[in-house]
Amino acid sequence: MPDPWPRDIKVHRAERALEIVFDDGESFSLPAELLRVESPSAEVQGHGPGEKRLVPGKRMVGIAQIQPVGNYAIRIVFDDGHDTGLYTWAYLHKLGRDQQALWRAYLDGMAQAGLTRD
């Protein structure tokens, strides 16, 4: 089965969220903070297993713009200057599908490290 394909993508600046509707019928509202702290960039994910970094202080991060990358992804430019992650359709779908578990893991990791979202 092919990866879900986006039918509609909207940035909601006031809500600091990216809304994405897929052709499989699923739709997600992804907070900019979650997108930023789960960026697929090497800066966040590292270069191998176990290298993922916690990114504190992103509660108020916003999306400055999105840029298409070929026909398979978007680059999200955040208002904190981060712009190196390429968000494929499959990755965005996974973030939406796993949003609650990812958010819980992020908050738990921040608490364990003594870091804050502010």
UniProtKB/TrEMBL annotation:
Which InterPro entries does the record associate with it? GBBH-like_N, GBBH-like_N_sf
Start and end of every Gamma-butyrobetaine hydroxylase-like N-terminal domain? 9-93
| A GO molecular function held by the record | metal ion binding
- Which Pfam families does the record associate with it? GBBH-like_N
Native organism = Arboricoccus pini
Task: Name the chain's protein.
Answer: DUF971 family protein
PANTHER family registered for this protein in UniProt: OS02G0197800 PROTEIN (PTHR35303:SF5)
Q: Which UniProt keywords apply?
A: Iron, Metal-binding
